[in-house]
Records
---
Amino acid sequence: MKKIGLEIHCQLTKLESKLFCKCKADYRSLPTNSNTCPICIGLPGSLPLLNRKAVEKAAMISLALECKIPERISFFRKNYFYPDLPKNFQITQYNAYGPTSIGYEGKIGIEDKEIRIRRIQLEEDPGRLIYEGSSEKTLITLIDYNRAGAPLVEIVTEPDFESPRQVRIFLNVLADLVENIGVADPYLEGALRVDGNISTGSGNRVEIKNVGSFRDIEKALHFEITRQQSLLDRGIPIQAETRHWDEARKITISSRAKEEEEDYRYLPEADIPVVMIDKNIIVEIQKQMPESIIAKRDRYIKKYGMPVQVANVLASDKFYSDLFEKAHSEINAKEVANIITTDLMGFADTREKKLELKISATHISDLANAIINNGITRNSGKIALQEMIKTGKTLSDVTLGLDLGHVSDTNYLEQIINEVFKEEEKAVIEARQNADTVNYLVGKVMQKTKGKADPTITIEIIRKKLSN
């Protein structure tokens, strides 16, 4: 029996400042060790001041994951020595005297399974270690404290996952969720980091750290399951330890003995008083939260008649759902959704490619309207879309430049269809016997017209000729 739980560290990247000081939360483009102050590097006598916006954003995550939010939250010092931790302790939350973290006892559904959320805690991020050198003999470790104190939410699940595949699905759902409610950009480097906890059979729990992507956490868990099962089969006990994922060799490596909670010597943070959370504040936060992914999906299905799969894909991607909201009308909504989910997502399936897109909502709207009004065929529309993505040109300019006009002239189409009937005699005989095979003939007409033939008129002419 396998038990898998996760600890997800999600930076609140939409905030302007760090958790306890006025230094910038967005440290990624700044010179090394330039984004620091006495508070975030832990100089004696410096006093932390809690970022109210960070509490609100963390509460949004708690609400989105159906967590309970206590009436009072408090902070603790988690004591451990590590080079990237300037104070030698981390200010975090800990449910020592009942629930006092920002959220607890939540849940999130994936496919047909419910994953329980044990707690959500608000804490500061440590600094960042940078390794340089080509071998172990020349390896040096550098420290950049720009990240130290960045606002972070840790989401701790119960060990409810039964397979690495479920873990990856969950992480994709969670990434979509935090992006949708506007608290974080999960695709920024280091913005969403995952530690996996796994035990097999009666063995001890092993923690896997240093995993760089959702794909790698799935691979790391697969490897660890195989490793632990092999030890159990040979009667070798599984040690409680922390292991790191070696991306190059695709294996986990023992790092240190697993710390227990008492090793951290949690102490109440005396410099930050208990924070009372009024129910009216929670109501206000709920009002500020955007439409949930599930509600958005249901609206797309009910209002626009979208297929469930299309609505699911569109609603879960904030970038494309925002584009849809700007581009669609009551008339062209389904066509806009089809263009985005069928074609555009194929051209731009990564964050980098999305940022490189040169098209706007107007491009998508114009293309959808042209297809609906038979101004351009769907096949020609794909070609036009690809050109608009590259150049940013308007649909009319692209259509003229690439000769993508819509062929609806009956006489011309009859000539093309006559040619196809002569070349495809066997297909014509088969189509007369089985009407379902007529699409093969339509495809041949499309080939000859480079996708510009009006499909409705083409089918009408072909069926008329087949009946003669």
---
Amino acid sequence: MKRLLSRAIVRDWPLKLVSLVLALAVWLLLVPYEKGSSAKSLSIPLETRNVPAGLEIVERPPATVDITLRAPNRLLDEIGPSSLSVRLDLDRASALQQEYPLKTAMIAVPPGAEVVKISPSKVTIRLERTAEATLEVHATLRGKPAAGYHVDGIEIAPASVAVLGPESRVRAKAAATTAPVDITGLTQPTVFDADIILPRPELRFASPETSARVSVHVVADKEAPRPAASPARKKT
């Protein structure tokens, strides 16, 4: 039995020795890499949270910031930009403050990883108080009635709309408009339902009502204005 075992061990011993050496070399290469640590740079999103009630962001910070991350090699390979973000809490912000520091503690990283650098170290964010205004709603018409007819009058309901937004963007003299209403070929009074379009992207509706009813009174050129017939209704 001992002879059989010893023969099995010494059989093809050069090949077995080479395999052992290769396995040892691979182990010596991989173990230091897995146990060692490295650093890499990433560009990750910057999120602003908890804007105080009554304030609006009018100047936003950059969408991303650059960080340097240090972690064990095996862990570092698994961390990418999609799994990290800088969370800037604005719960104590005011309209007077414009610069906000960025700290490594704002980034949640896996255990064993560390953020060693963040750039820029601060960002500019400008806030304003929220203001409200009432804007008139003007109808936007496209096309012309049929030959021999003309528009005798336009009625809009609601005639005005309340909006909210940053105080420097809310202007009572501005006007909202309706989505274009096509009156091409009309021969009778017609009612359209159209979306209300606000004059600035920073504004928003103060109520759920975001559309208007546009009544276009069309009469024949020789007819008396405003016929008594009930208007047809049409959606745009």
---
Amino acid sequence: MNSTELQYRAFLAVVIAATLVALAPIAVAGIRGEALPAGLIDIADKSVVAFAGLLGAIGALLFRQSTADQSRAETLSKTVDLARDTLAATPPGPVKATIVNDPDQPVPVEETR
């Protein structure tokens, strides 16, 4: 296994653990058949909010771009922009026209690129 796979598995393990810890008091009360006290709901709510912040921080650390990825993306963007500008700035090829002495005849024009 490479380090990226291990990072994803670790992140998934943290997500599962946070979900279980946040939902454990509610699940235990449900199994016992008891009504949930207001304090328990407040604690579960606060723990879910705390774990959401923690998971956001861990996810940001795990899935951030490295400087090499960012420089590759910038280089590719500049290359695409340069190619687009070059194609837009290229003038069309010369136009060749044949002049006919008869004014009633249309002038055939041939474009070459």
---
Amino acid sequence: MKKTVSTSTPQLLSRLVLGCAVIVAIGGGVLVEGQVERYIMREPRFALERAPEYGDPPPNLQIEGVHYVSRDAVLRVFEEDLGRSVFLVPLAERRLALLGLPWVKDAAVARLWPNRVSVQITERKPLAFVKRTGGAETTVIDLDGVLMEAPPSAALSLPVVEGVGPDVEAMARRMRIHRVDRLLRELGEMSREIGEINASDSENLKVMQPFRGRAVTLVLGNRDYRARYEKFLAMVDQLFERLPNATTFDLRLEDQVTATEEGQ
């Protein structure tokens, strides 16, 4: 048997009034929110101030972590935001623009009320110079295999690496420079003596350095770099005495060293 539930007129009126009250409250909230937004966008005290003197940095644009990255390039990213409310700064868009700058590995952009913007830059760390055919080495490479032009004013003391230039596919370049990084870490302080590393074959790294007046090439393979390097140091007197014209020493075998004389 079906039951019919009747609703009295007072109950209907009560629900109608409640519904209208909710609609009015929502509408009032939207109106207040819009007024607040307009106030924040127009009120001068929320504006990102311009520099008082031409050429000076904006006082409320805080930039941290910049060493190799051009500070002027960072400032240009926020040029159109100066004089406007920080509420209008498109943080995600500005971060993407910063990531497109040379030497920038990561960036964070934040609003600091009432009128400041914070920019935190994480720079790439150069690992080596990239050997270039003809001319000085001015391109550097980081651990991600990213190539960058060295800042003219930067005093970098880095080894030169062959086989990681722009002609090498990105994934292969990254793998090769990871091997180079492992070699440098294993050798530690001894790596300072190395002048050049050939990483054209990532399975067989070669290091070149002057040693007691002789330019030598050490073939180190793809592992045990420190042990093989130290083996050469322990045998160098004997090797130089027996092979006065040798320039290349293959250290990949455990129980012997294979030497090649210049011109062979």
